[in-house]
Amino acid sequence: MNLRRSAIVVVLVALVATAVTVTAGARSQGTLSGAGATFPAPLIAVWQQEYKRDQVNYNAIGSGGGISAITNRTVDFGASDAPLTPDQFSACKGCIQLPWVLSATSVMYNLDGVKNAIHLNGRAIADIFMGNITNWNDARIRRLNPGVNFPDRRITPVYRSDGSGTTYNFTDYLTSVSPSFKSRVGGPNTTVNWPAGVGARGSSGVAGVISRTEGAIGYADIAYALKNHIKFAAVQNKSGKWATPGLRSIKAASLADKKFSKTNELSIVNPPKGKKFLRAYPISTYSYVLLPLKTSKAAQLKAFVTWAVTTGQRFGPKLIFQPVPSYVLARAKSQLTRVKS
Amino acid sequence: MASVSETVVDPAAATLRRRGRFSPGDAFLYGITLAAALSALVLLVLLARELIADAWPAVQEFGLGFVTSRTWDPSTDVYGAATFLFGTALTSFAALLLAAPLSIAIALFLTELAPRWLRGPVGTLVEMLAAVPSVVLGLWGILVMGPWIVEHVGPFLHRTLGWTPFFKTEPATGPSMLSAILILTIMMVPIISSICRELFLNVPRELREGALALGATRWEVVRGVIFPYARAGVAAALILGLGRAIGEAIAVTQVIGNNEAITWNLFDPGDTLASRIASLYVGATTKLQISSLVYLALILLAFSLVVNLLARVIINRVAARHQVSA
Questions:
Q1: Which residues of chain A are in CATH 3.40.190.10 domains?
Q2: How far, CA to CA in Å, does A132 sit from each of A152, A192, A197, B29?
Q3: Between chains, do A212 and B282 touch, taking CB under 8 Å as contact?
Q4: Which residues have CB under 8 Å from B38's CB, separation 6+?
Q5: Burial, B286: exposed, middle or buried (Cβ in 10 Å; 0-12, 13-18, 19+)?
Q6: Cβ contact (<8 Å) for A193 and B147?
Q7: CB contact under 8 A, B259 and A156
């Protein structure tokens, strides 16, 4: 009996001691929790290492998940590649979105014996994802790639099964280049009803299925293609040039929209024909951070986002995140003053 | 008389008597167990109420036609459950078809045929399969089983059984309904086989020995004594396994390929009710989509309930027949 009682005392003391140390730890360094898009996740992972003021936790659950998480205030910030719809804005009750990351969605493929950066135009990509082009040696693909020897192999389109801003960016592009994609599949949206192919969860899931499936083609942020050594296509822009996702081609695309919408949106998908856009990669996109206007962590959030759009951008180029232009920075700074505790 | 013999044979009752009828400890125990029993019931009722309330917008919008509609289109905000119902039914029943003979064979081997020193270790290993978290099984499905199906099993099945609707094409991707079926089979086997093993062990010794004394062979004992005796229990075990398969979400999401298609070709990707909910719920953007996902959950609940009720009916019938014949 005595033994049991002393055991209980020991356990209680231990519990109190842990509770004390945990609260003490929280006081010395605060935490910020975020959730959302997988697209900026590779860069945010670097930020988590480099940002010293607070500890940042980020859960890459997809843009749709990020939007519902911030709407329900279960996180301090959300992240989404798809700008919020008016409905989502009103549901979020006092949220702002700010562009904070700039990169591109790559069209990745796995084809043994075929070189990197094969040429694909928007119409061909749309036809592949609608199941109209089903074999790699289809004339519509060969015509774009003179001199490339394509195997007789079935094409397996791979798409995101979860709600995804990358899907939004990709369908934004496909609906703008292919009227039949727009009428048959619809979008842009974070999830659409794909007529062909297989789904995978998250960008890493898509990359995983592609690298394990001969003949597969899919889409994800370019960082995932580079990290997993997956080949990606050069996509034809409106000026008729072939562009691969890279810092310069993303920068060129970003020139397409410098005027913020009321909700801080910038749309740079499929830039128009023109000298400025000769190099532009047509499936480029900003990704957004979502913040509540009223939050007890206002100061912490402002410090983190300001750091992210300034110092944080330095870590981008290695992962093909083009540092955001100065007007985005200025906008972020002026808009962040609206976040209050 | 009865009470006297009770005090003699039942030590618990004897203790009760000694302490008196209304000891606070007993009342406490009664209260706690009653609360536990009630909480399960209350939880179920609350859950159903919540599901119905959240699914209501979709129920109003799509009505019962939701169940037979094959569209799931977030672009136009139109949803239907037919493809996922089909996927759930196909994958779980196919998995049951594979798991049932395998599990019963394992249980028979472990109780009747295996040398005694082998029974313990093998039994434990089979039961340990049940302890593998489903997300780990799913990962294994993606990394190991998927490629194995594409490279070896798939082409073989296509060559030999390509004339059936199930293996019409060469497999193109690891994620497919076949992958889901095999993963579900792996999940069901330890459940069914461990229950069956207990059932077979509980066959009264006299019956078994009686049959042997009459000159029955091993197989005749199995067929004539063990199977009839354990029939109802085996049916219940199969239903338990089926329930596991119907509700499994994570591992299935990982390997099934999440595509809205009604097809008998097992090399094609498909989707189930549970996996659709798991993959889309966090990212659902419109209210109607969320509500439709909850509607799917409601259908899943109803589906499991119907399967369970059917199972109960079957078991009762079999058990009744068994009692008459015994």
A1: 30-103+286-338, 105-255+268-277
A2: 16, 17, 12, 68
A3: no
A4: none
A5: middle
A6: no
A7: no
When comparing pLDDT for B281 and A176, which is higher? A176
CB B266 within 8 A of CB B178: yes
| Beta-carbon contacts below 8 Å between A and B | 102
Domains in chain B (CATH in brackets) are: 63-325 (1.10.3720.10)
Using alpha carbons, list the distances in angstroms from residue A29 to A21, A190, B217.
13, 35, 74
Arithmetic mean of pLDDT, B249-263: 89
| The CATH number of domain A30-103+286-338 is 2.40.50.140 | no
Set of chain A residues whose Cβ sits within 8 Å of the Cβ of B172? 154, 156, 213, 215
How near does any CA of chain A get to the CA of B228, in Å?
A: 45
CB contact under 8 Å between B172 and A62, yes or no, is no
Strand spans (E) along chain A: 31-36, 55-59, 77-80, 95-109, 119-120, 156-160, 198-200, 216-221, 231-232, 234-236, 242-243, 284-292
Percent of chain A predicted with pLDDT > 70: 91
Which stretches within B145-283 are classed as H helix?
A: 146-148, 154-161, 177-201, 205-213, 218-221, 227-247, 250-256, 273-280
- Tens digit of each residue's pLDDT (9 = 90 or more) over A114-126: 988 899 999 999 9
Task: For domain A105-255+268-277, give the CATH superfamily.
Answer: Periplasmic binding protein-like II (3.40.190.10)
Tens-digit pLDDT profile for residues A270-286: 999 988 899 999 999 99
Tokens of A218: 């899919």
- Read off the pTM: 0.81
Residue entry with tokens 């953007």: B285
Whether cis (ω within 30° of 0) applies to the bond prior to B155 is no
Å between B106 CA and nearest CA of chain A:
34
Using left for φ > 0, alpha for ψ between -120 and 50, and beta otherwise, residue A73 falls in left
Q: How far does A201 lie from chain B, in Å, by closest CA?
A: 7
